[in-house]
Amino acid sequence: MKLYGFPASPNTWKVRALASYVKVPLEFEFVDLTKGAQQAPAYLALNPTGRAPTLVDGDFNLWESNAILQYIAGKVSTPLWPNDARARADHDDVGIRGYHTAYTIRFGWWSPFAANAAFEGAEVPSENQAAGAIEHER
């Protein structure tokens, strides 16, 4: 699977954090939002919204970060995304109703700001770390 994204983006960050946590390998392709790379025809062919991140798995593309999280979590056995349909429906019920605060507390990995609860002390990158990540990926 290949993830197209911008390292400083919270949506890209949360997808990479989850993939790392559940040990799903992702090839990372840097999309430089500061230079408008998300508007390049080749990128728009993958993601017509021109936003990041975008996940490509063979001939399957996803570009909504929460859908990407669900897809990655579904690739492995993890309590973050239950295999049991009833448990998963309970999970979705909370999120679909729009109770973002309850959702984030219950399933902290959905929000990079609540990631510490799910990722055992993982830190949200500071502005300096984010800037360094951007330079590293260039």
CATH superfamily: Glutaredoxin
Strand content: 5-15%
**Helical residue percent?**
40-55%
How is the CATH topology named? Glutaredoxin
Structural class: alpha+beta
Roughly how many Å apart are the termini?
20 Å
Instruction: Specify the biggest β-sheet.
Output: 4 strands, mixed
Uncertain stretches:
99-119
In the CATH hierarchy, what is the class?
A: Alpha Beta
- Rg (CA only): 15 Å
Number of domains: 1
Mean pLDDT: 77
* Global morphology: elongated
- Tally of DSSP helical segments: 7
Explain this structure.
This protein has 138 residues and is α+β, with helices and mostly antiparallel strands. The chain has a single domain, classed as Glutaredoxin, CATH 3.40.30.10. The protein contains 7 helices and 4 strands; from the N terminus they run βαβαββααααα. Strands 2-1-3-4 form a 4-stranded mixed sheet. Strand 1, helix 1 and strand 2 form a beta-alpha-beta unit. Helix 1 runs parallel beside helix 3. The longest helix has 12 residues. It is elongated. About 15% of the residues have low confidence.
Give a nutshell description of this structure:
The chain has 138 residues and is an alpha+beta fold.
Task: Give the tags.
alpha+beta; 138 residues; Glutaredoxin
Chain-wise SSE layout:
Elements: E1 2-5, H1 10-21, E2 27-30, H2 41-46, E3 54-57, E4 60-62, H3 65-73, H4 85-96, H5 100-106, H6 115-118, H7 127-137
Parallel strand pairs: 1-2
Antiparallel strand pairs: 1-3, 3-4
